[in-house]
Write a structure and sequence with these properties.
about 240 residues; 11 helices; alpha+beta; four-stranded antiparallel sheet; globular; 2 domains; two-stranded antiparallel sheet
Length: about 240
């Protein structure tokens, strides 16, 4: 009887999830425990009230929390992350310079990221490379102008591939190197120019057949929606440091 009871207890213990250890909590950063999250929330409020942070973070505690989490995981200044993490067409993206900086500061490689550039004009090509701790050369795939044309990076509105191809080809090579050899350092976030190349701006018209059951509202309606949205935002911040006039 006692043996059966002990077996039942053992089965119950196997079903229950293992308790979160102190090490697990540290690995989860600001989400590891209630105290860490509360402290991060206070820091986010302070950052959101500043005017020197980019506009995507001003008055936006949620965005500031995400930046704090990334800064904690990368062991960088939150301000440095905010200056380099952009919102492009609704998606977060790193600046290409930031990706290179993170790779160089990671301590995983023997030398800073180097760029092997060959050809010119339409034959321009670039490989980002460095050496690991053992001295082995590791490199990105080759980025070429033909690739830029085939992928239509050059055709994008505001693209600098036409005016600054040598700079852009280095940026793209660094981004590809990061995704290939150290994706954890950039946390799966694409470079700013990459996001622009495969997303469309929000609000851009999409080619599709009109819905005959939906009436088109006059332009004045959109202004009313904007007013309602503003009032909602004011309600959200009511009772916080961002409320009031």
């Amino acid at each position: 009887m006692e043996e059966n009871k002990s077996l039942e207890i053992k089965k119950e213990q196997e079903v229950l999830p293992a308790p979160i250890t102190e090490s697990d909590s540290r690995n989860m950063g600001i989400w590891g425990d209630k105290e860490s999250f509360v402290n991060a929330q206070r820091m986010a409020q302070a950052l959101a009230s500043g005017t020197m942070v980019p506009k995507d973070y001003q008055g936006n505690i949620g965005n500031c929390l995400i930046a704090l989490d990334m800064a904690d995981r990368l062991r960088l200044s939150p301000f440095a992350v905010m200056q380099s993490l952009y919102l492009v067409n609704g998606r977060p993206s790193w600046s290409a310079q930031f990706i290179t900086t993170v790779i160089n500061k990671s301590g995983r490689f023997r030398r800073p990221l180097m760029f092997q550039v060959t050809g010119k004009d339409k034959t321009l090509a670039c490989i980002a490379w460095t050496e690991d701790i053992e001295g082995n050369r590791i490199e990105s795939i080759a980025i070429t102008m033909k690739m830029a044309e085939d992928e239509k990076w050059i055709e994008k509105s505001g693209s600098k591939w036409k005016t600054m191809p040598e700079q852009m080809i280095r940026y793209r090579a660094a981004s590809f190197f990061g995704k290939l050899h150290c994706p954890d350092l950039i946390m799966g976030v694409y470079a700013e120019d990459e996001v622009k190349s495969f997303t469309e701006p929000r609000g851009k018209a999409v080619d599709k057949a009109p819905n005959p059951f939906v009436k088109t509202e006059p332009e004045a309606k959109s202004e009313a929606v904007d007013v309602e949205y503003k009032e909602e935002q004011e309600d959200i911040f009511e009772g916080t440091p961002f409320g009031g006039n």
